[in-house]
Design goal:
The chain is an alpha/beta fold. The chain contains 21 helices and 19 strands.
Length: about 550
């Protein structure tokens, strides 16, 4: 087998430092130069690459900020592939005929197609293929758990018996999306002629944006109603700047506006306007609800009402949406604690812990009642948190929060656990170890154990069926108990990932488009009157 010298040199010097998601401590220039040598050897080959040759190409490390330096800034940690790295990584794809990676993608992107284009250095073609299915490639390339979806199904990873060695699909997606955005040459999807029909989308998060784009492509007028003063949903208020820069979310929202979608902010459906009034009084032909799951859960333990205890939702919204971390320019108050405890083991818990580090806490303790193996957070986020100095307390959980006479947090009493039999989630159930109580000295506690749906829509729309957790009940097409009303994303699934929400938005949009394509699908007696719709339109 022909193996080039650059690959052999890399393989001899490689030292595995954890998973594929480990961010390299080599500089961006070093990684670019190494990839450039490998790429030159690959492109100068006389014989075409065979699958076994592609399997020998080393996976590319993601360049990243230094772990110490990034503790004191909000800049993005992962710096992104160079063109050389992206092409080398794409050349690792063996282009298997059954394309199992596509089956692992909730929005069914043509992954082999865009990866093949990137392997040939045609990055414009690559991003065009992605955007045929997704309007959020820069977002998904950063925050979607590819290791549990498309890359989990990757034949390269399975052949090498290591999902961490799968083709870096998300990293290639991020590169080609960023390249297009930074070049200022972003193209818009094709939009069919106007149909005269209009659809309301409630919420501008991943599900809402995806549904709005797909419905707009069919020529229908779309208005997106957002409760906050900025569009983007969880991508704006929930995910920190160091993981997802807000300028990227803004660019994606502006692309939606350029397609002709109207974005109305500061508009709370259920309060500003009742849901059914959008159809009955305002003339909308269909509604998609993608309002997310924004009601935080708490442990309901003694002391949760003390000053210094707050939900991850509030903490992250103050920092991300209201820019509380920028103390020189923002007036948003935020807790200023020296010793912080974060309860939970998901991505939101990691985001909270890492944000607390950047806000200047001397110690940040992450308390989780299972082991690291059961953590729902991405491996990448767990590793980043450790690199940044977050102290992990595994198989432990809070029993009660301690306060002083002024009801301010001064500590947290915890219990130790061991794992028992699996519970309904498939993870082993944590079991309390009797007499294991101990105290951690902290002056703030951030609760990040999940979210539920906001009850407002149900309270103001009695005919809208929900389950016992308050999630809207929808069928496989997103159809709800109300005629012409569809739903998807976290409001249906409970807290989920960006890409799963996008997948539900796409499914519901397809059903809405099918409905509106039917003759006489809309009651001709409905009189359109949108003069009551007030709000701030994104410029």
């Amino acid at each position: 087998m022909h193996t080039n010298n650059a690959i052999l040199t890399w393989q001899r010097s490689e030292k595995k430092l954890g998973s594929e998601f480990h961010m390299s401590h080599k500089t961006r220039d070093q990684l670019r130069d190494e990839a450039g040598k490998i790429l030159a050897d690959l492109l100068n080959r006389k014989d075409p690459l065979k699958p076994k040759d592609r399997l020998a190409i080393p996976s590319q490390d993601m360049p990243a900020q230094d772990a110490v330096q990034r503790r004191s800034n909000m800049n993005e940690v992962a710096l992104g592939f160079s063109a050389e790295q992206a092409q080398v990584e794409a050349l690792r794809c063996i282009q298997c005929r059954n394309a199992p990676c596509v089956k692992g993608c909730p929005v069914r992107i043509d992954i082999p197609g865009f990866v093949h284009a990137a392997a040939e250095g045609d990055f414009k073609k690559s991003i065009d293929i992605i955007k045929a299915s997704s309007l959020l490639p820069s977002v998904c390339g950063r925050v979607c758990p590819q290791e549990a979806q498309c890359q989990l199904e990757c034949t390269v990873g399975k052949t090498l018996k290591d999902v961490d060695k799968a083709v870096g699909i998300g990293r290639i997606e991020r590169f080609v999306a960023d390249l297009e955005r930074e070049s200022g040459a972003a193209s818009l999807p094709f939009i069919k002629p106007e149909t005269g029909k209009k659809v309301a989308v409630v919420g501008s998060g991943p599900a809402g944006i995806t549904a709005a784009a797909d419905i707009r492509r069919e020529g229908h007028a779309v208005t997106v109603f957002e409760a906050f003063h900025k569009p983007g949903g969880v991508m704006v208020y929930g995910i920190p700047e160091f993981r997802l820069p807000k300028k990227i979310v803004e660019a994606e929202a502006n692309a939606l506006k350029a397609m002709g979608v109207e974005l109305v902010t500061n508009f709370v459906v259920g309060r500003t306007r009742k849901l059914k009034d959008l159809i009955d009084k305002d003339g909308f032909d269909a509604i998609f609800i993608g309002s997310g799951a924004g009601l935080p859960k708490f442990l309901n333990i003694p002391g949760e009402d003390f000053a210094g205890v707050l939900s991850a939702n509030e903490f992250l919204t103050r920092s991300n949406l209201m820019k509380a971390y920028d103390r020189e320019k923002a007036d948003t108050p935020i807790i200023n604690a020296r010793k912080v405890a974060v309860l939970g083991g998901g991505n939101v818990a990691m985001d909270s812990a890492r944000t607390a580090v950047r806000l200047g806490a001397d110690e940040v303790h992450l308390v989780y009642r299972r082991t690291e193996a059961e953590m729902p957070a991405r491996v990448e986020e767990v590793q980043h948190a450790k690199e940044e100095g977050v102290i992990f307390h595994l198989l432990q959980n809070a029993k009660r929060i301690l306060g002083n006479d002024a009801h301010q947090v001064i500590g947290m009493e915890c219990l130790k656990y061991e794992l028992g039999e699996p519970d309904d989630s498939g993870r082993r159930r944590p079991v309390v170890i009797a007499g294991s109580e101990f105290v951690i000295d902290v002056d703030a506690v951030i609760v990040a154990i999940g979210n539920e749906s906001n009850p407002l829509l149900k309270q103001t729309t009695p005919d809208l069926d929900t389950n016992k957790w308050g999630n809207i009940i929808a069928d496989e097409n997103g159809s709800t108990s109300l005629d012409r009303v569809y739903a998807g994303g976290d409001i249906v699934l409970g807290a989920a990932t960006v890409i799963l929400a996008m997948g539900q938005g796409r499914t519901a949009a397809a059903a809405i488009n099918e409905l509106l394509a039917q003759p006489h699908s809309v009651d001709p007696l409905v009189v359109a009157s949108s003069t009551c719709l007030t709000g701030k339109v994104l410029l």
